[in-house]
Amino acid sequence: MSAVIASRYARALMKLAVKAQQVEQAAQGLDTLAALLTESPPLADFLENVRATGPDKARTLGAVLERAAVSPLVATFARYVLEKRRLRLLPDIRAQFHRLADERLGRAQASVTVAAPLAKEQEAELKRKLEGISGKTITLNVTVDPAILGGAVTRIGSTVWDGSLRHQFNRIRESIVKG
What we know:
With about 180 residues, this protein is of the alpha+beta class. About 65% of the residues lie in helices and about 15% in strands. The chain contains 8 helices and 4 strands.
């Protein structure tokens, strides 16, 4: 349920950011605010505490927003989210907003799992090929997992390409078992 609510808030902020032509600034502001709340559990706890008064929370958040120097759009949005008692959803709202921003701006996140670290040239070539396949600007997130034995497992959105040796060995084993 919280993912649905976070998505609604993210879409609402996206509409406002598009109208104000501040999609990138809003994304950066959400990043900054989410990081501050994550790095300071006492602050997040205070802002979520039902015993703290609304004006105290508003003053505290105002000071945080001023220190963080986020855009007025993000500051207003954060105050609204606080008022609606949904500030704990800010990390989820941030993630949903980034997904929407990536779609709008023609970007995509590619998660690639490899058996051994890639050289910079290999990463650049992989990124170039994925951009050609997807038609989007790719941000590459590479993780190393020796359990895949070789090859790579790539995910862009909901699409997965499993070119790992482990997957190929499993397919061969299945074909031998089936006869």
